[in-house]
Amino acid sequence: MSIPSRHHLLAGVLFLVPAACGSDGPAEPVPVEPDAEVLFIGNSLTATNNLPAVVNTVAEAAGLDVATRAVAPGNFSLEDHWAQGIDNFIRTAQADLVVIQQGPSSLPENQLDLQEWTDSIARVVREAGGETAVLMVWPTPDRRFAYDDVRDGYLNAAVQAGATFVPAGEALRVLLDQGTLEFAPFGGDGFHPSPVGTVTMALVIVGTLFDRELTGLPTEMPAGSRDGIAISIPESTAEFIYSVTDSVVAAWEDEGG
Questions:
Q1: How many angstroms separate the CA atoms of 128 and 49, rounded?
Q2: Cβ-based neighbour number of residue 176 at 10 Å
Q3: Angle in degrees, 0-180, between the axes of helices 235-251 and 168-178, rounded to the nearest 10
Q4: Distance between CA 183 and CA 121 in Å, rounded?
Q5: What is the pLDDT of residue 12?
Q6: Is the pLDDT of residue 142 over 60?
């Protein structure tokens, strides 16, 4: 999914701005070896607002050098990825961490599908020397009652595969419960993340995978050095979001592999 030159939500609440392509002087050299390489495998819930690039920026603000890349076609399940040869891509990429997600998977049959393909992908990731993280998403607008089912499906898939459970959906649920536009986690369709939702997801990912406390991060984060996206959040908004993400990460830190 292409990213507009500027995302603007609620006139001053939050901006996501892609890194500039040029500058007045020579570019700073990018370190050859990052602290970690993270591969995202998912669909438009990952591609919307360029979650991997936002993770790069948040990680750098937290003192980490994290390189990210993604394979995230629209409406893809993990089984679809497998059919397209993602196992071979994982072996070639040899990422340190592979973060996977598909749709809500709240129904029993879909939970079994999620578990099966999470396990298959996690085995390949281990063979390639990496670790797997399962990124919890959220239900569609017509099934908000199924939040617990979505969480349990993703959590069980992570536990079965020996993977890390990343409770992003739980953090977005807290924002949704606020019922205000300032913290609206979803965009116009009520399903794909808003910029606030994407930043919150990135915070949960960094907090979970790298054991970083989010409270105290700056409200202005320049674009990360590896194709990140600049982030600007008003202080009052940031204070609440950082508190939520720290609480959610702490609540689920012992779950999964």
A1: 29
A2: 19
A3: 130
A4: 34
A5: 34
A6: yes
What distance in Å separates the CA atoms of residue 77 and residue 165, rounded to the nearest whole number?
18
- Please, which residues bridge with residue 18 across strands? 229
Q: Tell me, what amino acid is at 245?
A: T
Neighbour tally for 58: CB within 10 Å = 29
Query: CB of 158 within 8 A of CB of 256?
Result: yes
pTM: 0.89
Beta carbons within 8 Å of 117's beta carbon, 6+ residues apart: 77, 78, 79, 81, 82, 102
Encoding tokens for residue 159?
Answer: 């536990």
Helix (H, G, I), strand (E, B), or coil: what is residue 128? coil
- What are the extents of the domains in the chain? 12-19+35-251
What is the token pair recorded at 224?
């990360």
Integer Cα distance of 211 and 222 in angstroms: 21
* Planar angle of CA 66, 68, 71, nearest 5 degrees: 165
Is the predicted pLDDT of residue 20 greater than 60, yes or no?
A: no
**CATH class for the region spanning 12-19+35-251:** alpha beta
Instruction: Return the structure tokens found at 41.
Output: 């495998």
Average of pLDDT values for 219-248?
Answer: 93
Q: Which two tokens stand for residue 62?
A: 């937290």
| Length of the chain (residues) | 257
Which CB contacts under 8 angstroms, 24+ apart, belong to 140-144?
140/104, 140/190, 140/191, 141/186, 141/189, 141/190, 141/191, 143/104, 143/106, 144/176
Distance CA 119, CA 117 (A): 5
